[in-house]
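Possible regression after last week's pipeline update?

I re-ran a chain I had predicted before the update to compare outputs. Posting the input and the new output here so someone can diff against the archived version. Not blocking, just want to make sure nothing changed silently.
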Amino acid sequence: MRLLIARCQVDYAGRLTAHLPMATRLIMVKVDGSVSIHADDRAYKPLNWMSPPCTLTVGPPPEVADSPDAAERVLTEVWEVRNNDGDTLQISIAEVFHDTNHELGVDPGLQKDGVEAHLQVLLAANPAAFGDGWTLVQREYLTPIGPVDLLFRDHTGAYVAVEVKRRGEIDGVEQLTRYLALMNADPRLTPVRGVFAAQLIKPQARTLAGTRGIDCVLVDYDALRGLDNAEDRLF
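New output (post-update):
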C-alpha cells in the first residue's frame, strides 16, 4: 500500500463530475489498484475514489505558465486513474509532505461474530429459507478479493451469491456488489445474482441493493435455530 500526503486538487469525470479544490489530503493506493482520496474527517469514507480494475499513470503537469489559476502554476505532477468504463480521476499534485510504501501481506479476512457465523451455518443447512428448490453449492466461495458467504443454485439452476450479515448496512451491499462483478466475469458461473441476507437491513442499504439488482432477505435467527416455533405462540 502506498500512502501519500500532499497538497492536491482532484477532478472526477464520468457518469458524474466532481471537483475538489487544492488542499492537503491523504492519497491511498492499494495493491488491488484502487485509489482513494481522504480528508482528515469523515471516518473511513473517502472524498473520491476509483475502484479496481483501473490503471494509474503519472505524468508532468500541463504547460500552465500563463494560467490565471495560481494553483495550476505550482503543480509538480498529475496522476490519471482510468477504469474500464472510461471514467477518469485526475489528481493534480502541488506539494508532497509524506510518501511511503508498506507491504501488508495477505489479510486473513473478517472474523464474523458468533451470531453472524452461526447464521451463515444455519442458512447453509436450510436453503429453503430463500425458496423452494434451492441447493447449496459451497460455503465461503472464494473470489479474487475474498470469499462470498454462500453460493446456491435456485430452483431454475441459476447461481445465487448470498452475503450474510447480522446487521445489513451499505458496506455489506458494496461488498456483495464487488463479489458479483468478479463472479459474473467467470464464464463458468455467469449469470450470478445476489441476495443480501440479514437480521436487520437499514433502509439505505435496501435502497442501494435495489439499484444494484440485489434482493434483500430478512432472516429470523431464532426461527432458524428452532427456538421460535409459531405453533407455540399465544399471539
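Follow-up from reviewer: compared with the archived run. The chain has two domains: 2-101, 114-224. Marking as no regression found.
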